[in-house]
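We include the entry.

. . .
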Amino acid sequence: MNRKQIIILVVVGVLLALSTIGLLLYTTKSPILQMVGLFPGEGQFVTPGENSEGGEETNIPIFVPGEGEEGDYTRLYELHKAPVAGVGFFEVKGVTAKIGKAKTSSTVTPRILSARYIERGLGHIYETSLATFSEARIVNETRPRIAEAFFGNNSKSVAVRYLEEEYGNELIESRVLALGTATSSSGFYKTEEVVLPKSVPFMAAAEDGIDKFFYLINGSDAASGTLVTSKGVKAGVFSSAFTEWIPQFPHQNLVTLTTRPSGNVPGYLFFLDTTTKALTRVLDGVNGLTTNTNRNGKLVAYTETKERVPELFVFDVVKKESRGLFKQTLPEKCAWSIKETNIIYCAVPQKISPAVYPDQWYRGTVSFSDSLWKIDTTTSFAEKILVPSEYRVSELDIINPVLSSDDSYILFINKKTGTPWIYRIVEKSPFENTIATTATSSAKILVQ
């Protein structure tokens, strides 16, 4: 037997052995990692679990939307496999339509909800419909080194921030992009760009849906704050000799300014009226102070570092009093309800170790594994609404949470991976195309 024949026999033997092993694994249902979640994108690997009615092992496709005969969509879903710089909701409120003849017609107002997000690094902008979980890239542009993004104006505008090398130094560049209308030929949105000054340290998008952003500029001995729209309209509204501010933009007439936090330094919170330019002190002398103000500006969730852990409180601006919420977390991990002004949704670490907060969490030397809670800030009653392990998700360190307009969904980024996730808070989503489900082939639809 020559050398060539020996090689052929070895190859055939290896192939037969691999086929036998594969057959055994398939027939014995060995609990190896199996690919599920084939729509959309790349899917996820999960391990088989226990059947609730018996002991039989079965694959539970946690990430697959459209399960069941009635399309009961998954509740926890990773929208994209690459890290993103920012997330936001895009809602189409729909049109009013008449179905059937005039005497028996009914009126429906379909609403369509999507999640939008922009990749870190390349700056590609994507949209995922929450009715179908289909993902599409919506802007045919590449913007390298995107590190941070803020969606505003119903996600029709986005402020992007990236590093640009200039004369051997890296500077922060900031742009506000307006997403116009999709072209009929390509399907991509056109964009218009507003260039902001170099080295903007912090920005914020208006949270009440208007087309405005607030940005800070630090000079050698002072800081200034400016409002800007996606059309490039600017208005200066703030100046201060102190330069270390972190802004939030709860509504068009209110910007909050919190001193840059450290667990070892007392912090301060000021309210800036963007109409009168008046500055009001709200909180002071709080170690490790970070804040999150609700949309009407009457309640502030804040953290105070006590015994090397962050304690969550709420401050009533009208009554000028604080209440403990009995949770150890940071307000950056919270989102205020849009429907109920006293309700806040917070990611709370399941276990928290003593450290210097928020410093070490910002630097990434401390990481969390969160559950999601719904908290009534009036009574301090808290209800746990999400434990990731129940959905076969190992750990989520939740940041940048955003609620949909009816509080049915919460969109966020997992700090551990940088990827965007969506969780459906309600049992069944109200965001469905009711025309598609109500109209029949014989119905006549008249759009008003």
